[in-house]
Amino acid sequence: MASAVPPAASTQPNLPSGIAVLRTIPYAFILPEIFCGTWVWILVAATTVSNPLEQGWVMYVSLSSCLLSLLLLVGYIIGFHKNSENWKVMDSLYHGATAILYLSAAALQANATIEASRTDTVIHYHLNCAATLFAFITTFLYILHAFRIYYQ
């Protein structure tokens, strides 16, 4: 008589590889994170830096996060993770920490925008506004990715 016990569920995380990364949530957030983070970097670089310490931190966070996210995306695409549970934990920790860093950078960029409204030209003020908007959007994307990978 056949047993009515269902087969045991696999405990492997089933992480995507190749082009499937771009079609699977939350991994599909990596490309918009890179895109929006790059815009933060470009827009801050295009303005006159009114407060070098604040906007230097924004530049550091945006540039380093873009590069690390790009490396993570390449790692997923080539299948470097080998479906390891540790890779999933590392991904969640990276995106959570980066979300916190980006939130601090977005707040500092918002402060730099307020200061720029008093002293800079209209075009530099608008560039700072756009950089602030993209910084908060990028922060939101990193938060979404961190929570979605954690609760997956």
Account of the 3D structure:
This protein is mostly helical and 152 residues long. It has one domain (20-151). The protein is 71% helix and 0% strand. It has four helices and no strands. α1 packs antiparallel against α2. The radius of gyration is 19 Å and the shape is elongated. The two termini are 37 Å apart. Pfam families: MARVEL. InterPro entries: MAL (IPR013295), Marvel (IPR008253), MARVEL-CKLF_proteins (IPR050578).
End-to-end C-alpha gap: 37 Å
Tell me the series of helices and strands, N- to C-terminal: HHHH
- Give the averaged pLDDT, no decimals: 82
What is the radius of gyration?
19 Å
What fraction strand?
A: under 5%
Task: Please bin the fraction of helical residues.
Answer: over 70%
What's the shape? elongated
Total domain modules: 1
Largest sheet descriptor: none
List low-confidence stretches: none
**Total number of beta strands:** 0
User: Which structural category fits the helices and strands?
Assistant: mainly alpha
Number of helical runs?
4
Summarize the model shown.
Keywords: Membrane, Transmembrane, Transmembrane helix. This protein is mostly helical.
What characteristics describe this protein?
single chain, about 150 residues, mainly alpha, 4 helices, MAL, Marvel, MARVEL-CKLF_proteins, membrane, transmembrane
Topology of this protein?
Elements: H1 30-46, H2 52-78, H3 85-119, H4 122-150
